[in-house]
Amino acid sequence: MLEPSAAPARTTMARNASVSVIIPTWNEAKYLPALLDSLQNQTRSPLEILIADSESTDGTQDLAEARGALLVPGDPRGPGEGRNRGARAARGDVFLFVDADCITPPDLLDAIVAAFEEPGVIGGATGFMPALGNAAERALFSLANGYQRAMTLWGFPHNAGYCFFFRREAFQALGGLREDMPLNETHDLALRSRSLGRFVILPQAVLTSMRRFRTYGYVRTILKEYIASTILYYATGRTSAERFRPAPAR
After folding, report:
1. Would you say residue 194 lies in a domain?
2. Backbone angles phi, psi at 203, to 5 degrees
3. What is the rounded distance in angstroms from the CA atom of residue 49 to the CA atom of residue 43?
4. Which pLDDT does position 120 carry in this prediction?
5. Which class for 14: exposed (0-12), middle (13-18), buried (19 or more C-beta within 10 A)?
6. Quick one: pLDDT at residue 248?
7. Edge to edge, what strands does the sheet with 163-167 contain?
8. Residue 67 structural domain
9. Residue 134 belongs to a domain
């Protein structure tokens, strides 16, 4: 992993900045069309959409290419590696990372570019809410959003990973995401970004599926994959691949 650059971040970004959307995938043909539809309906068009696919067998690759996305194939080594792989191929001034089972609000790209007009901003994340969630699931996610926003305001940027963005030069200076961490690699990137500038949380929220909660159960997902792994990361600076290796939920 590369060490952060000592060069200061630019304080503003032109409103004509280009945005590369990077989506890591592994067998996401069920969810990907809704995300691509939401990106097509943005008030600002992305420069490109890159699908960092990891040997999908369900037609994800064909679907992506048929929709005009740029396919960046690679080995299945986790979403962190996939995001880094997509970033290496991206050409935009801004990198926007979105999970394949998310749906973006139509003003997201405009809001991201506008955020960089604030002094010192080098990256950030959106809120997140359950797609077709019930009242209990919406309440759970509201608490998680509050935690992410509070931690960031208190100087400990928190990035749940559903949808986040960075200036190209900042992401490269940070060396990208740590690929040795199966969980919390997005939190880690947000915390490391403090050496370069401000990490912000946008008011916009993406909608995301509840598949992991409903496949593996709320207790396991919340207590082990979220709370326990995050505490371990804050205590040790890493998340063990041996102890935490969540299986994909489809």
Report:
1. yes
2. -70, -20
3. 15
4. 96
5. exposed
6. 65
7. 70-71, 48-53, 19-25, 94-98, 163-167, 121-130, 198-208, 102-103
8. 19-213
9. yes
With beta carbons less than 8 A apart as the criterion, state whether 184 and 108 touch. Answer: no
Output the domain CATH number for residue 136: 3.90.550.10
70-71 and 121-130 strand pairing: unpaired
Total domain count, the chain: 1
Q: Are 59 and 125 in contact (CB under 8 A)?
A: no
User: What is the pLDDT, as a whole number, of residue 2?
Assistant: 40
* Tens digit of each residue's pLDDT (9 = 90 or more) over 36-82: 999 999 999 999 999 999 999 999 999 999 999 999 999 998 899 99
Interatomic CA distance for residues 87 and 72, integer angstroms: 10
**Is residue 124 in a domain?**
yes
| Cα–Cα distance for residue pair 168/157, rounded to 1 Å | 19
Residue 218 lies in a domain: no
Longest CA–CA span in the chain (Å) reads 46
